[in-house]
Amino acid sequence: MTRTLLSLAAPILLAGAAQAQPAPGRLPPNPDADNDGKVTLAEFRASATKRQDDMFARLDANKDGKIVQAEADAAGKTREDGGPGRRGSMLMRLDANKDGAVTKAEMAAMTDRRFQTADSNKDGWLSKDELLTMKPRRGGARAS
What we know:
The protein is mainly α.
């Protein structure tokens, strides 16, 4: 009897666990827009664009299309000694041309680099396994 109950309950318990969702806002939407099991660079970029646009709207205080260290520091937490906060310093690492500002193009280039790094077999698309092995960014596990 116990064995029968367990065999009936197991699929229900597993289904519930499979449907458990992470906290809202912690993971981006599924980047596989066409649900073919492959995430192309275009899909990966599209998944990242909204988050990048939202971040720019929040951080680019003077709306000049660039985020400078002072804007990054003002939006993030600063250290107790008054130096730049970890978030601001990390963001400024995206400044590829070292002009003291991060643009949307530099953020997009970072997205492309993340894709290329995650594409471990270099077939031009990301499998579910490749997405799951990506190094999560700070603030939660994210696919882009």
